[in-house]
Amino acid sequence: MGVMPSNGCVDAGVTPPGRGWRLAAAALLPLTLFGAKNESERRVSEVIRTPGLVAFWDFVKRDAASGRFDAYKGKGETHDFRLDALNYVRDYWNEGRAAGYADIPLLGRGPFGEAVEIRAEREPDFRPCLVIPRSRLDGSGLDVKGPGRSVSMVAWVARRSGNHAIAGIWHEGTDLRGEAGLAQRVERGQRQYALFAGLGANGGASAVHVSDNGAKSFGDKYARNLAVTPEKLKTVATAEETDQAWSVMGFTFDNGRDTVTAYLDGKATEYWIDEPQKHGFFKWPAQGWLQAQLRATPGLQEGEDPEFPEDQFYRPPEVKIKKREVVERSAERRVEVRTYEFTRVRVTLERAGGKWKETRRELAALRANPFWFGHDLWTPEQGMGGPFTIGRVIHSSRSVGFTGWIGGVAVFGRALTAKEMLRLARVGTDRTGALMPVRSSSARQQR
Q1: How far apart are CA 377 and CA 380, in angstroms?
Q2: pLDDT of 151-165, one tens digit each?
């Protein structure tokens, strides 16, 4: 059992004093069930008992020999998931200094007892992150790829700033020339899946990126298959403020249902983007939708790009109409808005020979959560594939990216249910729904 210090944290593994504790414990009853040795271990057990677990890093568990962060692993998983510190700029541009664990400070508390800080580094050639090299994860449960494979991730985060990567296998490639110039070690994009803090889709939100080819999509130079929440993460300015500002980000990719879904604090709120062709991010899948429509019409159509790759069309199912609204009507012309599962289409029909014929289809809205993704995750060729990283991903712009604290990352080799995602989001929360950080005893520091 643990006591409630003045800062609101639960000190796991500390013997509680007298009646004052009993009153506090009553308020914390949901946190002290199941007879766990201490609160942090009880929370860990809630995560690792979830079916399909591949790996869970709480940043408390460490390898006894090296001191590196290690993962709780799912049944049958034998790969080495210890985390190295890496400055990817040094690895790919041969610039900057090497990174070590000292460059990724600890908060001293977190959802499971600890958290790592991703800072806004001022040196343009220094972008430290935590990494599992491809050589140690290839063929593991983390290496989710190919037919029928699904994946889910949950991360406990206190955001300070930025909208970029939290964790995943998402090597954006170093074959694009950014402001820093072309890398010395040039590699194509090697993306599979990752969790982001919204990107340009909705900066500061919870977002999930997936890739079918490791590279670009919908005619852009970047990947654009993404689901995002309308809600945004809590934001803090200082470490002291994190105690009241933890968010639980997450996603599921359900291969059987062709859907990728973003979660924030256990909720996957439906999110539609009106006029996506005008949106800075979703204009790319909107372009993929338009090109698919034009290609389906005989002859070269106005606006059609004959070089647009067919495998990058955006073609969610548009068979079952969920809602139909007539917005314009005359004897010879009718315009209706049809809502399908993932798109809302403005359809123009004109009377010809006594029958109504579709003459125009326009994308009125696109569903950004869940997002349709009718592909398998990219399967790298032999000798290829990106690393699994936490805090940052390899990319040519070398921007600072997300800054803040990460207090846990869990990966599952299946699509978790909405109920399971909600249960994980509630781990460590009080009756008001606030996530209460804990200080862990030293007993779990090395195993």
Answers
A1: 10
A2: 999 999 999 999 999
Q: How far apart are CA 264 and CA 145, in angstroms?
A: 24
Residue 242's φ and ψ, nearest 5 degrees, are -65, -25
Cis preceding-peptide flag for 317 (omega within 30 of 0): no
Measured distance CA(315)–CA(334) in Å, rounded: 24
User: For the whole model, what pTM was predicted?
Assistant: 0.92
Alpha-carbon distance values, 74 to 47, 251, 320, 413 (Å): 11, 19, 40, 9
DSSP H helices in 83-205? 88-93, 134-137
Per-residue b/e over 40-62, b at no fewer than 16 CB within 10 Å? bbbbbebbbebebbbbbbbbbbb
Rounded to 5 degrees, φ, ψ at 290 are -60, -45
pLDDT at 169: 98
Query: How far is the C-alpha of 188 from the C-alpha of 223, rounded, in Å?
Result: 12
Q: Which residue has the tokens 């800072």?
A: 119
Condensed to tens digits (0 to 9), the pLDDT of residues 320-331 reads 999 999 999 999
Cross-strand partners of 247: 157
Q: How far is CA 366 from CA 81, 279, 338, in A?
A: 38, 11, 12
Query: Which residues neighbour 15 within 8 Å (Cβ) at sequence distance 6 or greater?
Result: 1
CATH topology (fold) of 47-270+375-429+437-444: Jelly Rolls (2.60.120)
Tell me the Ramachandran region of residue 312: left when phi exceeds 0, alpha when psi lies from -120 to 50, beta otherwise: alpha
Quick one: pLDDT band at residue 406, thresholds 50, 70, 90?
very high
CB-count exposure of residue 335 (10 Å: 0-12, 13-18, 19+): middle
Closest CA to 407 of 108, 52, 98: 108
Tracing tokens 């590699």 back to the chain, one arrives at 187
How far apart CA 136 and CA 166 sit, in angstroms, is 20
Q: Where are the domains of the chain?
A: 47-270+375-429+437-444, 277-369
Q: What are phi and psi of 195, to 5 degrees?
A: -100, 135
At residue 378, what is the residue type?
Answer: W
